[in-house]
Amino acid sequence: MKWITREHPKIDRIACPWLIKNFVDKDAEFIYTAKELVVEKAEELNAIPYDIAGVEYTHYGEECTFDYIIKKHCITDSALLDIATIVRGADTDSFQLAPQSAGLWSISAGLSYNYPDDHEMLEIGMKMYDALYSWAKYVKDEKHNWNP
């Protein structure tokens, strides 16, 4: 299936493709376009619009699109639920939700600056979310304990 959203992604528009590709639709194709063209292009390309106001896959209340995808597709993986809190904090400027949220925002903003090509950034961002998932799934309780 094709999925479409607005260009120049940062948090949700990188996190959601990672979530979709790994847990919802392994054959997903992602399209970025100008904000004002998302709905029109979605109809034209038979694509699912996401992370834009007025569509099904979007923010609801204080939750972001990543949260909606988890609920919509009944995903219960505890690591993903942890990541959802981090993504929500980063995407809604609610850094108090998780200590990792501010770092995720910083890295995402930096990636957006360094990679003006949305698909190139998506490729790098997918690896970043692979690493975040591995942390949440396997090593989140590990502490850095270097002591000189």
From TrEMBL:
Pfam families the UniProt entry points to: ChrB_C
Domain ChrB C-terminal: 3-135
Name listed for the protein in its UniProt record: Chromate resistance protein
Organism: Danxiaibacter flavus
